[in-house]
Amino acid sequence: AFLDLVGPSEIKGVWRASATLPCTYVPVKDFVQQTLTWAVVHDQSSGALFRRDSSGDYILLSEYRNRVQVPKDAPGNVSLHILKLEMSDRGSYTCQVTWRASNNSLIAKEITTKVEVDKVAATKPIIRAGEMGLRVPAGARTSLTCEASGSPPISYRWFRSTPEGKALLLSSQAELVMDNLHPSDSGTYYCEAENR
Questions:
Q1: More exposed terminus of the chain, fewer Cβ within 10 Å: N or C?
Q2: What would the pLDDT profile of 137-191 be if each residue is shown by its tens digit?
Q3: 10-118 and 126-195 share one CATH topology?
Q4: Helix H or strand E encompassing 115
Q5: PROSITE patterns under this entry (predicted)?
Q6: How far is Cα 191 from Cα 187, in angstroms, rounded to an integer?
Q7: What is the pLDDT of residues 3-58, one digit of tens each?
C-alpha cells in the first residue's frame, strides 16, 4: 500500500474566501514524481486546470489564472490552493500524479474531491432592546449605548423625537453621551443600526 494519494471526498468552501483541496502522498525511494495534474468538471468548463511537469507549472483554464497555487517545496504535498472562491468553482476536482520507477515503468494514481461553495447569508442588524424609561437628576451625565448583532460592518445613529414628530440626529456613534442634563433634555431617544 505505497504511493497512495490521500484527500477528502468533499470539502465546503465559503464564497470569496480561499480553500485548500488536500492531496498528499508519502514519497517512496526509487519513485520520482513525473507529472501532477489537477482537473475539474463543473458547469463552466471541464478539463485540466493545472499541470506540473519537469518543465514547470501551467495554469490551463483562464478562470483560474492568478487564483491557484500548489506547494513547491513540500515533497508529497500536491494540494491545490484556490484563492477567492467563486460560486462557479463548485464541482469535482481530480488530483492525478504519475511517478517513474527506477526500472522506467510509470505508475499513476488519482483521487477526486467534490467542492461545494456556500454563500454566507448576510443578516440584518438586530438591536438589543434597552430598558424603557430612564430617570436622571438634572446636571448629571449619562450615556445611551446601542448594541446590535448582524453582518458587519454596522453603523449606528442616535435620534431624538421632537414634539412635531420629526427626528433630530444627535450622533453617528454607537454611544450617545449627554453631559450636564437639563429638564429640556427629557424626551424619546432612539437608535438605528444599519449594515449592507
A1: N
A2: 999 888 888 888 877 778 999 999 988 888 999 999 999 999 999 999 998 999 9
A3: yes
A4: strand 106-118
A5: IG_LIKE (PS50835)
A6: 14
A7: 899 999 999 998 888 999 999 999 999 999 999 999 999 886 789 999 999 999 99
Secondary structure tally for the chain: helices H, strands E: 0, 16
On whether the pTM is more than 0.90, the answer is no
> Grid cell 515533497 — which residue?
75
The CA dihedral of 138, 140, 141, 142, to the nearest 10 degrees, is -70
φ, ψ (nearest 5 deg) of residue 195: -135, -175
The residue ranges of every structural domain in the chain are 10-118, 126-195
Topology annotation, domain 10-118: Immunoglobulin-like (2.60.40)
